[in-house]
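haha ok so turns out i had the wrong file open the whole time. this is the CORRECT one, sorry everyone. sequence first:
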Amino acid sequence: MPLAFPVHLPRHAFSVRDAARAGDIWRCFQEAAVEGSTRCGWPPERYRKEGSAFVVREMTVVHHREPRYGEVLDARTWVANFRRGILTTREIRLENNTGLIASASQEWVHVTKGLRPVRAGAECLASFAPEDVEPTRDLPQWTSIPDAPEISFTFELWHGWMDPLGHANHPMYLDWCDEVLYRRMVAGGLDPVRLVPVAEKVSWKLGMEAPDSVSIVSQLVGRTAACDAVFTHKILNGAGKMCATATTVRRVVDGTGQVLVDLART
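then structure:
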């Protein structure tokens, strides 16, 4: 049976309109994954002792609605598969008595020191028996919009941002993608706090460490049947190497994503 337990979104996860940001929903999913692992006998300190870890390879999230500060939330999580003892899919659902709030499908890679993929040991594999509970989540379909201009910005990573594995934590990549859209909205006369997350997927190729520079190159690529705007994002390091790619689906509060489509095409 899936594990279930309460989770909490801190005050700093919320914008001035009292809605949780997408990146902080991702941080809540990360905490749920760590708690789920801990309840199966694998807390962070055990991984350190074993000289191993799980790192995220790909993550897909669907936002069913925006949670408000102070809402009581529950996480429900299970391992959906474990392939070759190296790749595993963890499903997480954030919900309460009103229904689903956000759903995540996480692809993790079991690694040893130096982040080298390696088959998990017998005890680890036995602790995470796969369960067939619900289908994995995916992005909505969309109609392509060609030839929209690219938008981008570049910045330098801070040492104080590095996570327990010494690199930029995976929710930060989503923060960066949304920051590109925030800046474009401000330039177009729109309040960035109006941005609403619908869904997103991020895939990682390389980790990023301070004090490297980061460049985000974003582009409008489509529109869903609900008129939500679809953007792709390339995340590059200072050497120009692709570290991650992302697709985000966004709308504005009290509306659709059409205003974002119009803005991104200009």
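The two ends are 50 Å apart (CA to CA).
again sry for the mixup
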